[in-house]
Amino acid sequence: MSRTVDSRLPDPSRWKALVFISLAQLMVVLDSTIVNIALPSAQRDLGISDANKQWVITAYALAFGGLLLFGGRIADLWGRKRAFVVGLTGFALASAIGGAAANQAMLLGSRAAQGAFGALLAPAALSLLAVTFTDARERAKAFGIFGAIAGGGGAVGLLLGGVLTEYLNWRWTFFANIPFAIVAALGAYFVIREPEGGRNRSALDIPGVVLSTLGLVSLVYGFTRAETNGWSAPSTIGLFVAAGVLLAAFGLVESKVRAPLLPMRVVTERNRGGVYASLGLAIIGLFGVFLFLTYYLQVVQGYSAIRTGFAFLPMVAAFVVGSTQIGTRLVTRVPARRLMAPGFAVAAVAMLLLTRLDIGSSYPGVILPGLVLLGGVVPTARRTRTGPNATT
């Protein structure tokens, strides 16, 4: 069904469209946390080695991050609605394969496929929101609802992952995505209307896609080899050198092509580039904390999957409070750069506190304070990008 709408007029189905777009976002965010809780069980069942367990998370993140710019460009070519529906359909199929995985390779492949289709889905969803809501106030409200659902999805994923793993099987943490995807895809197909003139027919930057993806894969795999072979191993050094060469070539290509995948002005402008770099480092740290604590609670402390989900809830609560109260209030009164440095410093203190963990550490004494500090501080720093005093 190919329906278009004059972008100058409000879409009469815009609030219905928001429901299905937000449902897709809920599925993506839920998947990122629900799998964390189920990972120890999946590792035992499929015989995944300790060295490779991180790839269940990394395969998704790498495909998603490496192809996100390309996914946005595909949405420009195909149309946002088509890219959205294809992304949802592919995500559902990849989830079904992950749930039925018979071995490590099948599981990792499904996670990479989820990331790839998520990279197509995510920019299409945000773009659809922007063009569907033409009134500035309605658009702000729609993005607020979208963001709140994304934040709540993290809590839902933690709890649902624990419940499904505890009372059914870890495989259901993948199968749970399928009904979300089906409902969102059908709703999008019949409700969302593509704005007129919404496609950009400029050429694809294929060299940029290849170089950026290979460069990121080499970088991440280099860190993986460092964990198993050591930092001075020839294979580790070779991968880091390859990553540097590939990413440098990517930057060179992007500065020369007519329609770059990543315009260099996005990262070379000091304020914007600085924000992206600092947020990227913060997210890297958070990924490590989540993966480590999941295994620490279940393997070392002997928590059940559902108890592990509840253990993370204070961090989610602090995240919601930090996003909706602390960050919202401070960002309108304090310059962004004065918020970011203290915010990241407190997050570093939280991670330093978590380094005190040992076999007999108590949850209230060590883990709880670290999680609350992380949850309350990081969203405050993230919101500095969008406030009136923001540096970007």
Can you describe what's shown?
The chain is mostly helical and 392 residues long. The chain has 3 domains: 12-202, MFS general substrate transporter like domains (Growth Hormone, Chain: A, Up-down Bundle); 206-256; 267-383, no CATH class. 77% of the residues lie in helices and 1% in strands. The chain has 14 helices and 2 strands, in the order βαααααααβααααααα. A two-stranded parallel ribbon has the order 1-2. Helix 1 (14-46) packs antiparallel against helix 4 (104-132) and helix 5 runs antiparallel to helix 12 (305-331). The longest helix has 33 residues, at 14-46. The radius of gyration is 21 Å and the shape is globular. One of its GO terms (cellular component) is plasma membrane. GO terms for molecular function: transmembrane transporter activity. It holds the Pfam family MFS_1.
Helices and strands in order, then pairings?
Layout: E1 4-5, H1 14-46, H2 55-78, H3 80-99, H4 104-132, H5 136-167, H6 172-175, H7 177-191, E2 194-195, H8 206-229, H9 234-254, H10 265-268, H11 270-300, H12 305-331, H13 336-354, H14 363-382
Parallel strand pairs: 1-2
Helix pairs in contact: 1-4, 1-5, 1-7, 1-11, 2-3, 2-4, 2-8, 3-4, 3-7, 5-12, 8-9, 12-14, 13-14
